[in-house]
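re: that chain from earlier
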Amino acid sequence: MFQAKAGANSKIIATQKTLQDKAGANSKIINRMKAIKMTFD
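^ sequence. v structure.
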């Protein structure tokens, strides 16, 4: 019972972490795009 719950929680935590990592990567890409646009302007 407890082990199953812990396993489910760790899966949720893992997916949240990957989502955060993806969001972080996306914001980095957006910032880079902005920087590129600034250099062209």
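The chain has a mean pLDDT of 88.
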